[in-house]
Design brief:
- This protein is of the alpha+beta class.
- The chain has one domain.
- Helix content is about 20%, strand content about 40%.
- Strand 3 and strand 4 form a beta hairpin.
- The longest helix has 26 residues.
- It is globular and about 60 Å long.
């Protein structure tokens, strides 16, 4: 009889603890708006069937049967927005490249991951993330003085033309094979200065991704959102592309650059979210 009574009491305590934990977790009632937190975006570049990309080594075959590999793989991420479960949005230094734009450079990846650390994030449960590929026209038209810090960083990374021409949004270089010959290619996409005055298309794109589990920002926990970028979309996305003498040296916002941009807008997905990294 004592055994049964002990078992019932123990079960009740365990159930109460579980329900209390779930309730606190679901309500997220410990939000303190006076104490902002941090969040981390982790970008991992790869080919969908080959895993992470090792520059000048990992060779992919496109849907058109063309073998290619990258020696350079870089792109700009900006205008990050976190969206909570009620649809409220928090913009992280929107249209302020000096504080809110980043370079994702495969050459500087650690274990194939590039880390972007964001600070002063309101405590909340976030269920979506949105970001831009490149730099918006509104930000660019702030002029050089409005983004001098990021401009110099992008310049050191080889992601600028002259100021009048603006930023390189995506920089891909490498080799493709025709018969048994390796041929060099480069694809540098981006807006050419003031797109209205220059009458060129806008290649700045934004991407919105659902999170498989919410990212829970507190003053003690820094979530990390692991974003996979499938570079197979470069030639094998919605547009099936082939590199040849007419497309192996592309810069700016040409027709081929527009097709590449449309492809690579679709390359991102969130693989998982970690909510267990403690802020020191």
């Amino acid at each position: 009889m004592k055994t049964i009574k002990y078992f019932i009491n123990f079960s009740f305590i365990a159930l109460f603890t579980l329900l209390t934990s779930c309730n606190n977790d679901d309500d997220f009632s410990e939000i303190n708006t006076s104490e902002p937190g941090k969040i981390q975006l982790k970008f991992e570049n790869g080919f969908d069937n080959l895993g992470g990309i090792v520059l000048d080594q990992t060779t992919q075959t496109s849907s058109n049967g063309q073998k290619h590999k990258f020696t350079t793989l870089k792109y700009i991420i900006s205008n990050i927005t976190l969206i909570d479960e009620k649809g409220n949005e928090f913009d992280y230094h929107k249209n302020d490249p000096d504080k809110g734009a980043f370079v994702v450079d495969q050459d500087s990846a650690v274990a194939n991951v590039v880390y972007l650390d964001l600070e002063n994030i309101p405590q909340n449960k976030y269920t979506k993330v949105r970001f831009g590929i490149g730099v918006s026209q509104k930000a660019y038209l702030l002029g050089h003085t409005g983004q001098a810090t990021f401009w110099e960083k992008a310049k050191r990374s080889g992601l600028t033309w002259s100021w009048a021409a603006g930023y390189v949004f995506i920089k891909l270089e490498g080799f493709y094979v025709t018969n048994t010959t390796d041929n060099f290619f480069l694809t540098h996409t981006g807006n050419m200065g003031d797109i209205s005055k220059n009458e060129v298309p806008d290649l700045y794109r934004e991407v919105t991704l659902d999170l498989p589990t919410s990212a829970r920002v507190t003053s003690k926990i820094k979530p990390s959102i692991h974003i996979m970028a499938n570079l197979n979309t470069y030639l094998s996305g919605v547009n099936k592309l082939t590199l040849d003498k007419s497309t192996n040296n592309v810069m700016g916002s040409s027709g081929f650059a527009q097709l590449v941009t449309d492809n690579m807008q679709k390359m991102f997905r969130v693989d998982h979210v970690h909510n267990n990294e403690t802020i020191n």
